[in-house]
């Protein structure tokens, strides 16, 4: 049974890496002793080693070992043999590029079908959607496709931000960007605020954390979903 | 001789569409009676007709006629016959997608070589760079390439924003995103603040407007360029 945590961010303001979600992770990863870390998104341009070290330190506090996928000779085998998987944030274009380059999409799909627990934060959450088309990231590399893992039947907009009524900046708001997306695409989008995450168990998808999330559907007014809502009911065909 | 105005934004806070730059445009377009408008970026999801109407109204105040490229049977011929060209803002991915789909990149290149004056705002400025890799836009469509017109030897980050020291938001700052870009790419990037533009005359590229612009080069500290600076000197090989 599919078992995912899809988080808006790794870090909330004023707190350490993954700190806000560690109690949840202790339970979520309770059957794993080692977590495979996928550092391909290279947050702030960190090297794979530097980035893996940050994940390693955070998980050491709940007695989990972390191995970077780049430490294996064969990344496909690393995924196939993983007890648990964590994909960190950074740049979604580069992350998706590396998923294709290393041909691990089929292996990730298989692992998740087999019930291997998966944690994503930010870019690592974007790739759980149908496409990466609602990332906020800069297109610093050209991936072979925008299609992603499709573990959930909608897309994620991570770090969702409400329009700032005091702003004098003329760049598009997040909501405007997502409405532009729906001119060209039918897949719904869930705007996840920092500190929110989705808990996926099989077909159940529940919103967790302290905030509401903003649901955008083509041709409809956006709506706010309360925390602890069973989100999957909004996507029944 | 190449003759371009490359503006960060069409509109500054508290003022009408193109209003801040109309005095400059009166002189820039003095030899044209009709301006070809390229509405492909579809700001806020507007239709081509709606968007063209907005440009038409602004240019009517300086006695210029505006024709939308979509009003022509053949967009390539529309570019070939244009007296002056204006590409508006919106979504850069969709704009670039349509440039390729309508195969007008060679025609735009030729027109600019022949001295046809070109105005770009926001997305319409991004495409003047070497690639569209420094857009802030959402990847709502998958264009066949990120390569753009290369009228200038660097990329543009339009609507450039300084980091906000009071922000509690954990998403990347603009500067962090551009630094991530430079891990993978060598082309320099100029962050153009809203109200700034570049005036290109042949090989000369001068920063205009009331603000400094922020120049990012691979492996170097970012630097602020003063307004009225001859920017091209920073890109001599």
From TrEMBL, chains A, B:
Top-rank taxon: Bacteria
Pfam families, per database record: Peptidase_S51
Matching InterPro entries: Class_I_gatase-like, Peptidase_S51
EC class name: hydrolase
Transmembrane residue ranges: none
CDD domains: GAT1_Peptidase_E
EC number: 3.4.13.21
CC per GO annotation: cytoplasm
Family matches, as Gene3D superfamilies: 3.40.50.880
GO biological process, one term: proteolysis
Family per record: Belongs to the peptidase S51 family.
Protein name in UniProt: dipeptidase E
Organism placement in taxonomy: Bacteria, Pseudomonadati, Bacteroidota, Flavobacteriia, Flavobacteriales
Gene name of the encoded protein: pepE
């Amino acid at each position: 049974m599919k078992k995912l945590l899809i988080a808006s961010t790794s870090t909330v303001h004023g707190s350490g890496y993954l700190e806000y979600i560690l109690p949840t992770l202790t339970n979520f990863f309770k059957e794993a002793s080692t977590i495979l870390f996928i550092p391909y998104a290279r947050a702030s341009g960190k090297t794979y080693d530097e980035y893996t070290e940050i994940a390693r330190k955070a998980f050491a506090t709940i007695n989990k070992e972390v191995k970077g996928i780049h430490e294996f000779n064969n990344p496909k085998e690393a995924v196939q043999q993983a007890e648990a998987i964590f994909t960190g944030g950074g740049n979604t274009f580069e992350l998706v590029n590396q998923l294709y380059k290393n041909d691990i999409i089929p292996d990730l799909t298989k692992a998740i079908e087999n019930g291997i627990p998966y944690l994503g934060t930010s870019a690592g959450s974007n790739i759980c959607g149908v496409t990466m088309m609602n990332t906020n990231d800069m297109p610093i590399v050209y991936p072979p496709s925008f299609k992603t893992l499709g573990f959930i039947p909608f897309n994620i907009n991570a770090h969702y931000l409400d329009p700032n009524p005091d702003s004098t900046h003329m760049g598009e708001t997040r909501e405007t960007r997502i409405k532009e997306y729906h001119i060209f695409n039918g897949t719904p989008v869930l705007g996840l605020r920092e500190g929110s995450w989705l808990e996926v168990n099989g077909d159940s998808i529940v919103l967790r954390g302290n905030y509401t999330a903003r649901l955008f559907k083509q041709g409809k007014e956006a709506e706010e979903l309360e925390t602890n809502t069973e989100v999957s009911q909004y996507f029944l065909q």
